[in-house]
Amino acid sequence: MSSPAPARPRPVHQAADLLAAYLPGSFYYSSVRGSLLADGVYSPVHAAPGGRARAAAEVLDAALVAGVTEPVVAGAIGFRPDAPSSLVVPAVVRRAGPPKARGPVAPLGGNWSVSPQPAPEVYTTAVARALDEIRDGDLRKIVLARCLDVTGGDPVAVPRLLARLVHTDPAAHAFAVDVSAPGDPAPRTLIGASPELLVSRRGRVVTANPLAGSRPRVADEAENARRVSDLLASEKDRAEHAHVAAQVAEVLGRFCVDLDVPAEPEVIGTPTMWHLSTRISGRLADATDAGSSALGLAEALHPTPAVCGVPTELARDTIAALEPEDRGYYAGLVGWTDQDGDGEWVVTIRCAEVRDRTVRLFAGAGVVAGSDPEAELAETGAKFGTMLRALGLEGAA
Ligand SMILES: C=C(O[C@H]1C=CC=C(C(=O)O)[C@@H]1O)C(=O)O
């Protein structure tokens, strides 16, 4: 006869201690729901797109049997189906409450050179071409991205960069993920502070918070108020947003009962941007299937028109044709799922990839009929602000 396992007290950690304990190679994730720091690898999770949730559930079962305490699957998945992914069941997971705002963290220092990739006029030409495709063909929305390479004299202090991201905006979904691949000459870290919740699951309750439609935030509050009301009234931005909210609602509708989709978007603010936002929630019809774990839902939702477009396949092909730089992990998903299927995944935006002395920032903007190439260039410049602030280079885009 088997006897129940003795209940072990859960070790109590402070959010600030987890952040302070982060080292490159660890997995860090924090949001208003809590903080998670994971180290070591019990097992990688390898599976093709669409099969990851089931593979994750199997590895989590094996980890439990092997004695891993409260295992999770954590990591990042790239934008394209053929992009790399970095998903593991870590050997050790520590959890704490949400991070709190604290005093300023010292800047990274150093002399940085900043180089847009591609050149700004290549980006505006791509937006103009996308507008031609929208006018002449079936494309209705496309998100076009560009990069900013920031290079310093010394290897980048990733833990300090992460601490600055978290302290600037403790409400963001902050992350740092080791995305090194075999043969890389130096370790690579995906780091960022995303405002966009792809999906979270807690028990049967599912929440998503699609964002699209933007204005840069400025210091002057009267000007911010004008920008917020302009954003709410903008037909172009509302169309851009409606594509995302509709697709997220349609996908979650396949899994949920009692889906609540607000009829009107609201505006949310980050320290650098204002966005149209729709908070969607529902209850899972079947919470036992691996396909409805947080990772399963995230895979079903990806890529939303917040990072790809409408229709999805045509937008993805047009992105491949118009963007000269590979997105890699940008515009993919980052997060974690536990053995109950609970977890949280965010859209990988307001992020960068750090490799030795270089930080490659990514930012994209949604293009619909009525978009203006110069305005999209400026919008992507403003979106770089999240990472530039953390680097101490505000205004360098
Ligand atoms: C694609 C990005 O942002 C998305 C999320 C919010 C608003 C967006 C926009 O207004 O274009 C984008 O869809 C990015 O930051 O790289």
UniProtKB/TrEMBL annotation:
<dbReference type="GO" id="GO:0009697">
    <property type="term" value="P:salicylic acid biosynthetic process"/>
</dbReference>
<dbReference type="InterPro" id="IPR015890">
    <property type="entry name" value="Chorismate_C"/>
</dbReference>
<dbReference type="GO" id="GO:0008909">
    <property type="term" value="F:isochorismate synthase activity"/>
</dbReference>
<dbReference type="InterPro" id="IPR005801">
    <property type="entry name" value="ADC_synthase"/>
</dbReference>
<dbReference type="InterPro" id="IPR019999">
    <property type="entry name" value="Anth_synth_I-like"/>
</dbReference>
<protein>
    <recommendedName>
        <fullName>isochorismate synthase</fullName>
        <ecNumber>5.4.4.2</ecNumber>
    </recommendedName>
</protein>
<dbReference type="InterPro" id="IPR004561">
    <property type="entry name" value="IsoChor_synthase"/>
</dbReference>
<comment type="similarity">
    <text>Belongs to the isochorismate synthase family.</text>
</comment>
<dbReference type="Pfam" id="PF00425">
    <property type="entry name" value="Chorismate_bind"/>
</dbReference>
<feature type="domain" description="Chorismate-utilising enzyme C-terminal">
    <location>
        <begin position="121"/>
        <end position="383"/>
    </location>
</feature>
<keyword id="KW-0413">Isomerase</keyword>
